[in-house]
Task: inverse folding
């Protein structure tokens, strides 16, 4: 078995009496898409927050590339190769589309204190930013103000910013949220190709996308992984059907 | 060229032409008034680097203005009394040289900004405003009780400090120095807004979560911005003290901090020339309306109210239209 790129070991997090994350151990191997599904309130967002570093777990570890990153803040994990996208787009709305991806390129380069030369005249930053826009199909919108983008285009820009980081692993929090059928299908195709570059931990509600993309699926209910396996295993699992999937299978 | 750029150039041309005319017409008081406007502009340009791009509403920027003022006051005080500033462990004497005084003012206010920033930038919003205000009050009361340097009465410096090759007692020459400092600060601010640092700081104001997610630390970005901002306002303080040849605790007052913010809002937040337009307008109104009535602040307040309610982009917004995304 290939070594896990990203792994959680026995993560626990409680808010008062509520056990939001209960002994969660999952792994993400090179080349795969591992989907995390579960009903609302199952603790998916809490799990993502612990993996990305926004929230400290009560117990357990987060490993990235074999290194324990549990004690590192968000920005250090990003520099270590973890790129996340947000469920609710986190974009600088006043800035242009190009500036938003340039910020990612700047972060990847890691030298943010230059104060004299224009950032967008830096070849390295500009090339990286434009390449990412090209890949998600937003090259034509580069000069637009981000606030003028449609919801679907903003979702693509979220992914483009993550691409500029050239990470070891992606963590995507509901990238399909709010997309129509066509938008979902497009993004599904795109993510399908992306797994070759870096594995994706995908939290998603859109079951069509999950079943089309996932190499493995883990089901989270009340903070606990109740089942884990291939799409076929999960479809057949009685506990999962009772708890979550219902008629969707 | 955008309308805003044209407007900015017109403002700059006015700042060159008006005092030159006053010089030829032998109206030194007008030059003094213009010098006051330019120095207050410089102080507000300093604040605008933190407030405009970084979104850091500091209600304590008079701290740095005052530190700059006292750096000048203390160094010149020791020089005019032929009394060294300290003798151990090494000798430091007072000085009447502007470049040295500016260096001291910039270094001291940058250090103060670094320390205040380290403590206050862990908070945001109203808490940040309150903490910076609290620091302002601390410095204000410290200056009042610092009797070695005049305490509440402040101290007078009898002769304006010197600059190599210039006679700073000639109003137009001192004005030229101040204008040069303002133009340099504006040039730096303009470059910074488009630089990597500006890009990151601007994003840290809008979406700090995103900035962290790409591997940058918003706290460090803000701290650097706050320190630079304090240093520039400190330089303005040293010039202001030299203009009046007088330093007093009022340079630390929170009212002054508030006025810096008002300059920026009136001119246009995050506009390069916003603080300049605001400060010039303030000085002009203070002089002319202040001549009719002691209660001129009421009229100034009405102007501010009108701009906040109806012209969100400040005076520059009204004249030059909506801000363009930096390209």
Result:
């Amino acid at each position: 078995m290939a070594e896990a790129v990203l792994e959680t070991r026995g993560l626990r997090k409680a808010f008062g009496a509520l056990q939001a994350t209960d002994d969660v151990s999952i792994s993400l191997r090179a080349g795969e898409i591992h989907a995390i599904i579960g009903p609302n309130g199952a603790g998916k967002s809490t799990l993502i927050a612990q993996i990305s570093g926004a929230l400290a777990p009560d117990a357990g570890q987060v490993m990235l590339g074999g290194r324990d990153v549990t004690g590192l803040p968000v920005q250090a994990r990003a520099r270590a190769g973890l790129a996340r996208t947000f469920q609710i787009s986190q974009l600088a709305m006043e800035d242009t589309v190009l500036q938003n991806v340039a910020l990612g390129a700047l972060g990847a380069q890691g030298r943010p204190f230059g104060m004299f030369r224009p950032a967008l005249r830096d070849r390295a930053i500009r090339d990286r930013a434009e390449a990412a826009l090209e890949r998600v199909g937003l090259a034509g919108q580069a000069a637009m103000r981000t606030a003028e983008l449609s919801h679907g285009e903003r979702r693509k820009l979220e992914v483009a910013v993550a691409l500029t980081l050239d990470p070891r692993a992606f963590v995507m929090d509901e990238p399909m949220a709010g997309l129509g059928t066509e938008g979902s299908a497009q993004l599904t195709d795109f993510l399908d190709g992306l797994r070759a570059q870096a594995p994706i931990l995908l939290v998603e509600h859109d079951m069509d996308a999950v079943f089309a993309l996932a190499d493995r699926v883990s089901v989270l209910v009340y903070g606990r992984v109740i089942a884990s396996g291939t799409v076929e295993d999960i479809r057949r699992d009685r506990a999962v059907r009772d708890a979550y999937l219902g008629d969707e299978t | 060229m955008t309308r805003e750029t044209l407007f900015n150039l017109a403002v700059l041309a006015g700042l060159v032409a008006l005092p030159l005319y006053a010089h030829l017409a032998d109206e030194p008081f007008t030059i003094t008034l213009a010098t006051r406007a330019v120095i207050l502009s410089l102080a507000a340009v300093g604040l605008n680097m933190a407030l405009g791009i970084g979104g850091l509403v500091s209600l304590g920027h008079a701290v740095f203005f005052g530190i700059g003022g006292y750096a000048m006051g203390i160094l010149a005080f020791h020089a005019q009394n032929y009394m060294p500033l300290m003798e151990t462990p090494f000798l430091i004497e007072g000085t009447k040289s502007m470049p040295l005084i500016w260096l001291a003012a910039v270094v001291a206010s940058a250090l103060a900004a670094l320390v205040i920033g380290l403590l206050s930038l862990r908070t945001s919003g109203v808490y940040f405003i309150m903490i910076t205000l609290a620091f302002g009050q601390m410095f204000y009361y410290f200056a009042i009780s610092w009797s070695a340097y005049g305490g509440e009465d402040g101290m007078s410096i009898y002769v304006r400090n010197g600059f190599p090759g210039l006679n700073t007692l000639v109003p137009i020459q001192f004005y030229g120095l101040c204008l040069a400092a303002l133009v340099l600060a504006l040039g730096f601010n303009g470059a910074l807004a488009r630089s990597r640092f500006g890009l990151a700081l601007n994003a840290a104001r809008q979406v700090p979560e995103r900035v962290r997610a790409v591997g940058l630390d918003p706290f460090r970005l803000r701290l650097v911005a706050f320190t630079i901002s304090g240093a520039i306002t400190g330089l303005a303080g040293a010039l202001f003290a030299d203009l009046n040849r007088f330093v007093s605790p009022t340079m630390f007052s929170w009212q002054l901090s508030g006025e810096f913010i008002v300059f920026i809002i009136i001119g246009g937040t995050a506009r390069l020339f916003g603080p300049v337009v605001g400060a010039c307008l303030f000085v002009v109104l203070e002089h002319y309306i202040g001549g009719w009535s002691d209660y001129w602040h009421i009229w100034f307040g009405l102007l501010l109210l009108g701009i906040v309610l109806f012209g969100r982009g400040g005076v520059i917004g009204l004249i030059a239209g909506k801000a363009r995304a930096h390209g």
About this structure: Chain A touches chain B through 44 residues (CB under 8 Å). Chain A has a mean pLDDT of 93. The first strand of chain A starts at residue 4 and ends at 15.
